[in-house]
User: Fold this.
Amino acid sequence: AQSVTQPDIHITVSEGASLELRCNYSYGATPYLFWYVQSPGQGLQLLLKYFSGDTLVQGIKGFEAEFKRSQSSFNLRKPSVHWSDAAEYFCAVGFNDYKLSFGAGTTVTVRA
Amino acid sequence: SAVISQKPSRDICQRGTSLTIQCQVDSQVTMMFWYRQQPGQSLTLIATANQGSEATYESGFVIDKFPISRPNLTFSTLTVSNMSPEDSSIYLCSVLTFEGSPLHFGNGTRLTVT
Assistant:
């Protein structure tokens, strides 16, 4: 079945430490890949996207993601987390119809 | 980029009533979508709002429950009809500009049904 999986429901990380959020997808073809962030009470903000080309994608707020076709993964990383990065992160996939399918989300807590 | 305004931002409604949510964009867009985010869950696509024609609904969503209008390229409404507590969710409008991907999202409407 087609799906987007975020294995980690909740991650706690210390401020200044690195962060990696996992995303795997299961589709017949390689979809377009996105990471969105949702702060409490806010809508979704796009962090980065991958359509094709360079498999390492740079996004806003110091985030990057790497597409690995062999692993059907699109993991999000940040080298040094700030307290303001505490939020919920969604991986999403789409195709030419632009209808997105979202993973369950990962809640990130940043401790001082 | 597109600036999306959703109204209301939140509401508390009685069981059995209906609520219409508005989505206004500051520029013309090609596609408009409505998503639902149930408490503690991810986003699920409800439907694609088509200008001048009936919306296209995803599996599990029907027009009688979620009628949608899109009279022009900048505006859409979603109505949640005959509400029950199970309809308590955040409803988000998203749009695709003529520049293409990605989708832009509004801040959502937080609906509580009592």
In short: The longest strand of chain B covers residues 29-37. The CA atoms of residues 25 and 94 of chain B lie 10 Å apart.
